[in-house]
Amino acid sequence: MKSQEQTDISHAVRVLTAESDALAQLAQSVDESFADAVSAIHAMKTAEHGSGRLIVAGIGKSGHVARKIAATLASTGTPAYYVHPGEASHGDLGMITPKDVVLMLSNSGENMELSDLIHYTKRFDITLIALTGNPGSTLAKYATIRLIYPKVPEACPNGLAPTTSTTMMIALGDALAVALLERMGLTPEQYKVFHPGGKLGQKLMKVSELMVSGEALPVVAPESLMDRALIVLTEKNLGIALVMDEAKKLQGIITDGDLKRHMAPDLLQKPVTEVMTKNPKSIAPDALAVEALDLMTKQPGRYITTLVVMDGGQLCGIIRLQDCLQAGIA
Question: How far apart are CA 242 and CA 255, in angstroms?
Fold first, then answer.
């Protein structure tokens, strides 16, 4: 390895170690103020006379972190958006109401651009949460709740570029988002509402969204012979036939595997009840599709291609391995 490459790697290790140490100190410094901040934001969301929003603000690198924190909070069920302190001074203060809570980020807590927004929160009695590394700053002085992170050296060799400080800001923002998520008891299904697209949305699809149901289902009666079952299998082309009685109760299923196991000259004249698999594996319609995929592919020594979807003993439909894979659930 070249000496320059070794030097680059040593710099990376030094930076990562410094930021890791900073996060360890941050974890030890969390106190009642953090719980107060969570309570204030949660109360804002559940106010009796209309809920508010969390306004996240910061300037420079703190502003970039503030945007990320606002996005994380919004995606986990806390209405939040970023307001640029400079734009706030030129009309965007009108976007902030007394029902809202303001979370303001500043390492020094002394940025001039923050002053108008700070004064606005005091004038209209808006809860102000300060996220800063300077407990003696103007921001900390006027804040309702103070989230003070440890004063540790930046990873930059000159001690100037925001590195450890912004890492701690992001981590505290994540901690707030997760604590609020836990307090509201956000379920994977509710989480999907905020992530309908992309890989996350796909993984949180429900079985009911992918299952085949209604007239598309390949159904044969228990008294049918296998010649009828083969016609239904061919017509519906789903790789399965459902054996159902007049009361719409599922008696069993016939799959390609069943056909192979019973292959004989008299197969077409056999009753479907002699060929079908009784008590097939099933899943509920409100289960996640990824659970269905796991059930189909993680069978000991083999996998199955179709599950019946049952709700309270009633057949709702079928979900196929092929449908899960085509939907991007893998």
Answer: 9
